[in-house]
Sequence to fold (199 residues):
Amino acid sequence: NGFVSTQSILSVAIVLIIGGVCFYILSFGNNQIEVFNPQFSWAGSAVCYTGYNMLTAVAVLCILAKDTQKKTSVFSALITFVILVFLMAVMWYIIFKFDGIINLGSMPILRICMYNSNNLAIIYSLAVFFSMLTTAVSSAYALSVKYSGAFGEYILYAVSFFLSGFDFSFIVDRLYRLGGMLSFILIIGVILKEIKYIK
Fold:
């Protein structure tokens, strides 16, 4: 219960911060920009960059599923879908607007916030921190349940320490893509298994 409650609170905070930052950029930021370049390879990145979260999400959902009602799950998924589609559409527009104007790097919204205001960048950094925290907690939760022994935990610590040495841009550009591809395969496997179960 504590795990789910903590994730829920942080998720709401992430949505509010990102929504507020996007509203500020569109309303009060530097909007004297007339560039809107649709020639941006977003489809592959969208699958890879968001798909890697499915690797941990599926594991957590499998653990929590026994205590969850189907109606609640469907309602939660619907709310999440609507909110995220709206936020992603707004962020997509903002990124397109600044594409070619500034160096967006591996964290484009953060760069755009820095371009407009340092205080805005600090506020958005909270959303980034909360996002990393929820992902880390989700990963640790599922793995700690699976590998609860001392030896397994030492392996997890060693792997985590090893990965922390990589540059963040390398992790985003390479490891996120790899995770996204693996998650896409995982999703197909889950769907096929569900179809087989229904039959």
About this structure: Residues 33-40 have pLDDT under 50 and may be disordered. The chain is about 80% helix and 0% strand. The two ends are 34 Å apart (CA to CA). Helices lie at 2-28, 43-64, 70-98, 108-116, 118-146, 150-163, 168-198.
